[in-house]
From TrEMBL:
Residues 46-145 form the Methyltransferase type domain. InterPro entries: Methyltransf_11 (IPR013216), Methyltransf_Superfamily (IPR050508), SAM-dependent_MTases_sf (IPR029063). This is Methyltransferase family protein. It comes from Halopolyspora algeriensis. CDD domains: AdoMet_MTases (cd02440).
């Protein structure tokens, strides 16, 4: 039985996390960087740890198919409801399945892009998920992992305050050892009001660190750094 690590934010506060998702990447920098490495237009995409499906509609606009995989059934139900609101031609290309990253409900060599954003692939310990992603990718397909950059202030400093044992260098070495090319992406979270910003910080950090983060964020925007990690499945035998 695969171990599923509960998400400390979206599992418990999906409505607030919806606000966070809408605030994230207001510059579009993450989406531009992802497209540069793998433009999914006309391709088959799987979004691992898709949560309540926030990113599925964007993929569905141009992808041939997109499958959201989510281990938490309540979030999967929310994701399916989101898909139901899509136009007919996009809805036909999108679906949601309940499963963990270690056991993707997909055939061998059946997708072109495996996308995971701040989900499961956090460094040492995610090897079973890496193997599954490799299994379902076609030759030449791309595994793209997007995670927060704990070295990038101010958000990274708040992360490290809450996770004193987290070592960004160890994580970086792990992904290098597994053949990933990693790049930094800077973007901006933009909120409509202070209440939204404070609510989001409140579900992302402990009470003490959240108070510090609120005090250090006087406006309606937060600069946030990410790491985009990309690995391509070889198209032939390696000799």
């Amino acid at each position: 039985m695969e171990r599923v690590r509960p998400s400390p934010n979206i599992w418990h506060w999906p409505e607030i996390y919806e606000i966070e998702n809408r605030a994230q990447d207001s510059t579009g920098a993450l989406w531009r960087a992802l497209r540069e490495h793998c433009d999914w237009a006309g391709l088959d995409v799987v979004d691992v740890g898709c949560g309540d499906g926030f990113h599925l509609p964007l993929f569905a606009v141009t992808a041939r198919t997109v499958v959201g995989v989510e281990p938490h059934p309540p979030l999967a139900r929310r994701a399916r409801r989101r898909i139901e609101s899509l136009p007919r031609y996009e809805k036909a290309a999108a679906e949601v399945r309940v499963a963990p990253a270690q056991r993707l409900p997909l055939a061998d060599a059946s997708v072109d892009l495996v996308h995971a954003r701040t989900a499961y692939f956090f460094g040492p310990g995610c090897e079973p998920g890496l193997a599954e992603a490799e299994r379902v990718l076609r030759p030449g397909g791309t595994l793209a992992i997007i995670d927060l950059d704990a070295t990038c202030p101010p958000y990274g400093g708040w992360m490290r305050a809450d996770m004193p044992h987290y070592d960004p260098d160890t994580v970086e070495t792990f992904f290098e050892r597994h053949g990933f090319h990693s790049t930094s992406v800077d973007t901006l979270w933009r909120f409509h009001d202070r209440a939204s910003l404070e609510a989001v910080l409140g579900i992302e950090f402990s009470a003490e660190v959240a108070r510090r983060a609120v005090a250090e964020s006087p406006g309606l925007t937060l600069p946030v750094g990410y790491r985009l990690r990309v690995r391509t499945r070889p198209t032939g035998l390696l000799l």
